[in-house]
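quick q for whoever's on today - can somebody do inverse folding on this one?? i tried earlier but teh output was garbage lol. tokens:
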């Protein structure tokens, strides 16, 4: 994904009106593969500040977002993946913030309407070669089946890879 498209996507997100009771927008940009780490200098956002996590500045970023600057919009570039949630000092902020990804796996999941959670992400990464073929993705999108778990996506109960949110209450 080109840097210009990323800037357009992020600026578009910041232009959307805030949800009720929100005073600012924070977007966590996940890039575990560090594909865009060297291109951060090219990112110029209209209504937000960009801060990159380095692994040693996590506490400083948490203090900035939680205490020092409570009004500015932020994109938090996160090239770090955590094995355990307890290790992520920004998890509390991330839970009320938005998530953004630009890697191929994320694009495929979005294209196929697959729920973006760790288990489904792991499954799509595992079958990266399969999902890399545009023709296969087109066939999946043409199907009308639904899948509500990674087990169904594996085909153990005959499901397809398309995910739709359940409306059951």
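ok took a stab at it. sequence:
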């Amino acid at each position: 994904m080109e840097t210009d498209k990323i800037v357009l996507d992020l600026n578009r997100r910041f232009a959307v009106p805030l949800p009720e009771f929100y005073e600012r927008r924070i977007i966590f940009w996940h890039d575990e593969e560090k594909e865009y780490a060297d291109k951060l200098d090219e990112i110029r956002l209209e209504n937000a500040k960009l801060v990159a996590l380095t692994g040693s500045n996590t506490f400083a970023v948490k203090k900035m977002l939680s205490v020092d600057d409570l009004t500015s919009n932020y994109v938090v570039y996160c090239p770090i993946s955590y094995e355990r949630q307890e290790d992520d000092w920004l998890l509390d902020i991330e839970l009320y913030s938005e998530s953004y990804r630009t890697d191929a796996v994320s694009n495929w999941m979005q294209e196929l309407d697959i729920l973006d959670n760790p288990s489904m992400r792991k499954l799509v990464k595992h079958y990266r070669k399969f999902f890399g073929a545009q023709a296969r993705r087109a066939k999946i999108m043409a199907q009308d089946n639904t899948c509500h778990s990674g087990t169904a996506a594996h085909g153990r109960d005959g499901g397809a890879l398309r995910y739709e949110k359940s409306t059951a209450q």
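fwiw The longest strand covers residues 26-30. also The helical segments are 3-15, 58-68, 91-95, 104-111, 118-126, 128-131, 134-142, 150-153. so keep that in mind when u check it
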